# Entry
Amino acid sequence: MAAAVRRGSALRAVARRFHVSVRTVHVWVERAAGRRLDQVDWRGRAPGCRVAPNRTPAEIEHRILQLRDTLRHESILGEYGAATIHTTLQATTASPVPAIRTISRILVRHGRVDRRQRVRRPPPPPGWYLPEVAAHRAEVDLFDVLEDLKLARGPLIDVLTGVSLHGGLPAAWPLRTATTSRILPCLRTHWQAVGCPAFAQFDNDTRFQGAHQHPDVFGRVVRQCLQLGITPVFVPPREFGLQNPIEHFNGLFTAKVWRRFFFPSLAALHQHTLHYLTARRARLAARIGSAPPRAPWSAASRFRPAVLPAGRVIFVRRTTARGTVELLGHTWPVDRAWCHRLVRVEVALGAEESTCTCYALRRSAPTEQPLLAMWPYRYPRGPIAP
# Structure
């Protein structure tokens, strides 16, 4: 194109000949202006200006970099950031000084900033507060209650939800009111169908743990778990991470079932919940199959509400400012150096004498759970009200 223009052809004629715009012909002619064609750099260039017209001059950038190095080694306060450089330039230079943000960009462009790397520790394994669960040798089922869901032109209802930690096995039961008497048949039906896990985790709700106004109370859910060979685990509801699996399933159930459809009655919600759980379990079939094995249901098992058998009950608690822990209506001394920290208290219920064993818990070192304290414990032997 440049050679044709130099031979006397018009720009428009050359543009029609090469099927380009007149502007394109003009650009290449200007590129070759005053030079031999074999000495012109015909390589493509990025659009726009090579140097921004408002860029800070190189001498000022060099001055800023030198001043940063000087302040880093000689400043009494040890400050050498953009704000300090800006203040120093204002005191020592009569000419206009770049803004603080401009100085920051100059430091970043030349790689002269001290980047603070965030320390990212690997998360603890699932169920890290239970060594057998963390080692993938045992399964734990988590249960919770969704309260006060309003049916259309109907009463408020509750939904008992459950999910297994390793397998993700979901469960849900819409109930008129989630009382202990209605929760117990749901748990028995679930474990009879899928098998009994090694652990069952709950929050501190009185429907699961038992009444809180009296000491040494083990509710009917605890007694049912112990009679089935399941270790009940109670965790604080507002403790970070311990209830994440069941809270995630609660949100999933609310979004995918409750808020998506219109349910005129409790029976309609129950029927749709069964369909949803069937589809959800089919989706998670591979994960459910790779979970730790469950104990088979004993056909001879019969719930005896007044019997508290020998077994183990686990409480995850946080110590107080004095290094004590509140448990079963008593205050237990743990360690004055272990204040406001997590502990796992295992209450071993025996035929003659019981013990409470307290272990330290740390997310940064989940496998290190040293023994902190051990106390003798005697629970009342009188009749237990159903």
